[in-house]
């Protein structure tokens, strides 16, 4: 371990706003985790989920994250793995009506629950309004973060409607839609291509239509 | 991740017994901190006891006029609760200042209190860290310590407590309710719940093996103006460098608790007593005994400036 290493880490941390530690180590671990979940370990555990309206029965190593269950076992690869540590939002799915990071939860913990992924929101033939708006507003470049952004965005509108306050809500009792609210509430979804302004525009469009 | 066995507890008592009887067992709630650390093999439990479906997710009034918050109440639900928004607004504000919408949907009251430090050396298993590996030394002390604590630190560890919620809980004089494997209950004042590092930074709370948090109880509301100000490297989704939770009374009194600067959520009687004399006096009283590094010395003036900003805002309101 060299001083050079510490300095580089320090810089990355500063730039990364101290989300957590060791971006480099996390990357390596993210890959190791995927392999680990198929290696021999604890006895397999039965897990039943309703994914996009379809009941599925799985036998899983308890280590399997919900994300790996979706991607590796159910082949629903729309949901993406970015950091595998709750820092990027690429893995966002909707479980029991709420958006969560599927990388930081175990599939076994969700036995019997209802999961909606990007594949369940809409299809290429019948797009969800949020998917349509992302296309219209160019809310992406490479598209890697997009499934997470869209799942998150759909939930954000629900959360505002439900009166759940955010960090930028001035009066805790009056939660209303605004661009500032969207930016704050979407901060858990990082976009490496920085399509942020178009993402905000897309969400604004859907919110406007919902009100009209 | 190391292999582990998993069970879903069927009652609070059974959960406590299971966790106490298996060597290396841990409770899992939201999993947002524990699984993060398990993936890095910083935590290596042999057995997980899932406490999610024990009905510990209710918020109810106590007979004493306070509020009992179930250990499994999600951070989102706590922040949005009508009573909390009205009577304990500082708690709502602190909660929504933390993490992201997705994480708050999972993170629980107990898990948030028990989340572990964000010290970069704690997170990097190639580094020495007395908290992660007792006796291995502290990499942070002479290293990158910008985010670390300046109060309550020791020669062994200068880690900060990273929680926002816990700072508001400290300000509100919360109490942590637990049950152990024998069924014995206790109520621990939040001031006594987290331990200072001393020579044993790996011991972080007074909880015993298998002791489960069932709820966190707040005393009756005390009114006043509730604020939570978090200073961080970006506007959202980042841990605090310094945070201040405050309640300003009508009579010039106030109370303050701090995040980002302490080995645990920080509050002093001296700081509160200096309230009428203004920001500088509160900062001085709070920071008495502070120990900074080359890297985090900026936290002293930042505490004072953050307080000054809160005082100005309060004066503008009055
Ligand atoms: C990217 C990222 C950013 C974040 N930013 C912030 C931030 O800005 N501010 C902030 O405050 N937090 C932040 N967090 C931390 C987050 O708030 C915590 O991870 C969360 O609150 C932990 O709650 P949990 O229920 O998921 O805990 P878990 O991970 O389930 O558990 C944490 C610990 O608590 C123990 N435990 C859980 N429940 C009980 C119980 N009932 N009784 C006894 N022990 C129990 C577990 O055994 C474990 O040791 C961030 C996290 C991430 C990943
Ligand atoms: S400050 Fe504490 S947590 Fe960080 S390296 Fe030192 S001993 Fe470990
Ligand atoms: S992959 Fe889950 S948050 Fe990054
Ligand atoms: S579109 Fe490329 S990461 Fe967001």
Task: Give the SSE map.
The complex is a heterodimer of chains A (about 210) and B (about 325).
Chain A lengths: L2 H13 L7 H14 L8 E7 L2 E7 L5 H8 L18 E4 L2 E4 L12 E3 L1 H4 L7 H8 L9 H16 L17 H7 L10 H16 L1
Parallel strand pairs in A: 1-5
Antiparallel strand pairs in A: 1-2, 3-4, 3-5
Chain B lengths: L4 E4 L3 H10 L3 E4 L5 H6 L7 E4 L8 E3 L5 E4 L4 H6 L1 H6 L1 H8 L4 H6 L2 H6 L5 H4 L41 H7 L3 E5 L5 E5 H4 L18 E7 L6 E7 L10 E7 L5 E6 L9 H5 L5 H9 L11 H19 L1
Parallel strand pairs in B: 1-3, 2-3
Antiparallel strand pairs in B: 4-5, 5-8, 6-7, 6-8, 9-10, 10-11
The complex binds flavin-adenine dinucleotide (FAD), iron/sulfur cluster (SF4) and FE2/S2 (inorganic) cluster (2 copies).
Could you walk me through the main structural features you see in this protein, from its secondary elements to its overall organization?
The complex is a heterodimer of chains A (212) and B (318). By secondary structure, chain A is an alpha+beta fold. Chain A has helices at residues 3-15, 23-36, 66-73, 118-121, 129-136, 146-161, 179-185, 196-211, and strands spanning 45-51, 54-60, 92-95, 98-101, 114-116. In chain A, a hairpin with a 2-residue loop joins strand 3 and strand 4 (98-101). In chain A, 50% of the residues are buried. The mean pLDDT of chain B is 97. A five-stranded antiparallel beta sheet of chain B has the order 4-5-8-6-7. Chain B has a three-stranded parallel beta sheet with strand order 1-3-2, with helices on one face. Chain B is built from 13 helices and eleven strands. Chain B is α+β, with helices and mostly antiparallel strands. Chains A and B meet through helix 1, helix 2, strand 4, helix 6 and helix 7 of A and strand 1, helix 2, helix 3, helix 5 and helix 6 of B. The structure holds flavin-adenine dinucleotide (FAD), iron/sulfur cluster and FE2/S2 (inorganic) cluster (2 copies). Flavin-adenine dinucleotide sits between chains B (26-34, 36, 51, 71, 98-99, 103, 106-108, 110-112, 114-115, 162-165, 212-213, 239) and A (19-20, 86-87).
């Amino acid at each position: 371990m060299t001083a050079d290493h510490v300095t580089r880490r320090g810089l990355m941390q500063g730039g990364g706003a101290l989300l957590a530690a060791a971006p480099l180590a996390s990357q390596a671990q993210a890959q190791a985790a995927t392999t680990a979940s198929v290696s021999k370990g604890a006895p397999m555990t039965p897990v039943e989920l309703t994914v996009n309206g379809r009941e599925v029965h799985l036998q899983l190593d308890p280590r399997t994250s919900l994300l790996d269950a979706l991607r590796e076992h159910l082949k629903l690869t729309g949901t993406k793995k970015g950091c595998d540590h709750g820092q990027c939002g690429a893995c966002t799915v909707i479980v029991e009506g709420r958006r969560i990071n599927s990388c930081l939860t175990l599939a076994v913990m969700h036995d019997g629950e209802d999961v909606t992924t990007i594949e369940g929101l809409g299809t290429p033939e019948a797009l969800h309004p949020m998917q349509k708006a992302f296309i219209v507003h160019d809310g992406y470049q490479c598209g890697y973060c997009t499934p997470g952004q869209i799942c998150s965005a759909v939930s954000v509108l629900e959360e505002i409607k439900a009166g759940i306050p955010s960090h930028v809500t001035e009066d805790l009792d009056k939660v209303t839609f605004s661009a500032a609210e969207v930016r704050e509430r979407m901060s858990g979804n990082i976009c490496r291509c920085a399509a942020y302004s178009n993402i905000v525009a897309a969400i604004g469009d859907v919110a406007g239509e919902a009100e009209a | 991740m190391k292999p582990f066995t998993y069970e879903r507890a069927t009652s609070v008592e059974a959960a406590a017994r299971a966790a106490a009887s298996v060597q290396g067992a841990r409770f899992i709630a939201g999993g947002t901190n524990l699984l993060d650390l398990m993936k890095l093999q910083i935590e290596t439990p042999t057995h997980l006891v899932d406490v999610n479906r024990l009905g510990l997710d209710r918020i109810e009034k106590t007979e004493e006029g306070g509020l009992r918050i179930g250990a499994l109440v999600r951070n989102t639900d706590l922040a949005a609760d009508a009573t909390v928004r009205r009577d304990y607004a500082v708690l709502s504000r602190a909660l929504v200042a933390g993490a992201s919408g997705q994480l708050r949907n999972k993170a629980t009251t107990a898990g948030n209190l028990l989340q572990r430090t964000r010290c970069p050396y704690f997170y990097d298993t190639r580094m020495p860290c007395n908290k992660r590996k007792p006796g291995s030394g502290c990499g942070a002390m002479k290293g990158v310590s910008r985010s670390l604590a300046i109060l309550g630190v020791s020669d062994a560890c200068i880690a900060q407590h990273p929680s926002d919620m816990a700072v508001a809980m400290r300000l509100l004089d919360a109490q942590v309710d637990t049950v152990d494997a024998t069924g014995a209950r206790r109520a621990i004042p939040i001031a006594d719940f987290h331990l200072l590092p001393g020579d044993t930074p790996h011991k972080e709370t007074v909880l015993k093996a298998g002791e489960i948090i069932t709820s966190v109880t707040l005393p009756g509301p005390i009114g006043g103006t509730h604020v939570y100000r978090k200073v961080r490297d970006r506007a959202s989704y980042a841990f605090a460098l310094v945070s201040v939770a405050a309640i300003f009374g009508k009579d010039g009194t106030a109370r303050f608790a701090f995040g980002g600067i302490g080995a645990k959520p920080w509050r002093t009687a001296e700081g509160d007593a200096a309230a009428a004399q203004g920001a500088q006096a509160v900062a001085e009283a709070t920071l008495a005994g502070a120990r900074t590094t080359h890297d985090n010395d900026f936290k002293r003036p930042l505490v004072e400036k953050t307080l000054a900003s809160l005082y100005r805002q309060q004066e503008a309101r009055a």
